[in-house]
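User: Can you write out an input/output pair for a complex, sequences first and structure second?

Assistant: Here is one pair. Inputs:
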Amino acid sequence: GAGGGNDIQWCFSQVKGAVDDDVAEADIISTVEFNHSGELLATGDKGGRVVIFQQEQENKTQSHSRGEYNVYSTFQSHEPEFDYLKSLEIEEKINKIRWLPQKNAAQFLLSTNDKTIKLWKISERDKRPEGYNLKEEDGRYRDPTTVTTLRVPVFRPMDLMVEASPRRIFANAHTYHINSISINSDYETYLSADDLRINLWHLEITDRSFNIVDIKPANMEELTEVITAAEFHPNSCNTFVYSSSKGTIRLCDMRASALCDRHSKLFEEPEDPSNRSFFSEIISSISDVKFSHSGRYMMTRDYLSVKIWDLNMENRPVETYQVHEYLRSKLCSLYENDCIFDKFECCWNGSDIVMTGSYNNFFRMFDRNTKRDITLEASRENNKPRTVLKPRKVCASGKRKKDEISVDSLDFNKKILHTAWHPKENIIAVATTNNLYIFQDKMN
Amino acid sequence: MLGRGLKRKLSDYEENVAGLSSAFDSSRNLPYPLKRQLVLNMCLTKLQTYKMLVEPNLHRSVLIANTVRQIQEEMRQESGQPINVCTGITPSSPSYTGMESSGISLQLPSGISQQESSCCDLRSAEDPIENSLLIVSDDDMSSAISSILKDLDFVEDISPPTCLVPSGDDQPKFPENTGLKLEDDRQDLKGAECVFGSFEISNSTSYLKDLAIDDIFEDIDTSMYDSDFCCPPLMPPRPPPIATEEPLKTFPSCNSSSASNIQICRTDLSELDHIMEILVGS
């Protein structure tokens, strides 16, 4: 982390994806996630595909950089579906990917679209059996009368093949659109959350799930709040949180009752009256919630800020960081063009530094210890490896200094919604619309 | 202020609204009621647009509906009574979406005092901003909110999706709560009582066998199903209807609306059966 009082210096490492400015809709990246060791990096896209990158083993001679990420596996996780009863198309877009911790040679991940969660097994094959008696090498059966001797088939090396196969399909449990999945620390169960309900699954059982939260009112006209994100506590397997469109977070204990409609804790910050506007509620809607690695804190992202909450204090966050406060005076325009509904995610580095995206392909980091923050840009213009990224600055008003960008020049089509931090090292993955950038800290 | 690189072409209407939004953001002199009216109109326009979608976004609809409610409440408090200054604009008029800046002028009934019309603070009819704003009544707002939310309920929560997904090792199981006839014996219903009997929102056996369902769901709008064209699912069939004695496999997360679905399906059951038979060729 940012230990020793030295700020991290970020350098461009790699960029994946088409160079084209014309973005194919299916290539829009919709989720990014490192696995538990950081060796694998998965992305999901709007076309329902999952691409997994693997970090090269560190090259001892190249001590100045860590291993590069190269494509390890690509597979079609979800296909578009048509619900004939309702005449609705179900999008194949991958909303979330979550990795299971590795237990054996194979890797497992959960991927979900709006309605269906799938457990995928990714396994390597680098040997194949050769020398069957009854089969030719291509699989055709030999005429038994031509067999004159017997031999024992042996394994011979082959080019590495990485196979992905769906091991479980968890379907038909969500009426509304799934926005989150989270694997429990028991590694046996996981939750899936849609706009109004949260279900608990066992990884081995696909034909049933428990409903543990249901906020659907009897009369839909009374609906004023939806669930926006949910996550299990990293250590406490009976505890989870879910955030809402009203800016609240509820912590629930599954031991208290089967249906966790009554929260154990409610985290909510009273509104600042000086900032009140017509759009106050919309911008308070939480788009992401993430526990720190220790589980002591959680972070929430709403439209303009990132808040850090101490689980022991419900009435206000312990820290608030402004991501792009200069947008507060532009809310009506952002409402008109729907940007105000953009759902930015956020991520932790341990418990010290948090990162989140913004517009114009900018992303921000906040160091909780030094209280310093930085704005960086994911752009192909900065793509010389080992060159330190230049901090960016947005000029909110008044005279624009050199190298600053004025608010009105920001490109609101270039949004960074998804970012991920390597669990152990200072390597980050930042997704622009259809490109994946990998940055790492400068090693000396 | 829409930023560089915005690729869509703006129609006249959209350009006008964009201009209004910019005015809202940049102008300090815009009177509050006017700002409020602008926001309100934008909200109602969005809700109207969402209604036309096959599947409106629930999250956004709720946020926008709340904003309308908030404005509505504010306007109510200001006037001290439900506002009804709608002028020549009926709730059913398409004027929510037809906001051409040049075409609409504000008319007030002569009897309305300045105080009552505080929600629509007019200066001159020639003011282009005001000319493009509509006055909406309290009722209009409420009905806009209700209708989008009701639509969402109906569209979304009829039944779980019917999609068959190929599984690896596991045969996917389907919830039993639609009442369509089972054609294929391959569907292996685990008649097991659920081990986890503690969940509260569930299709418990007695609930579904209780034939007093009709009473509960009288007010559900089934107008969508009144059309002649009833599209049967072409996917593999569902487990048997509730008339059987088999213990039902519970599927807790898929909710009480399953009962409403049964009611709907019952009325079309024979028709669907007939169609299914033709399709399956049995």
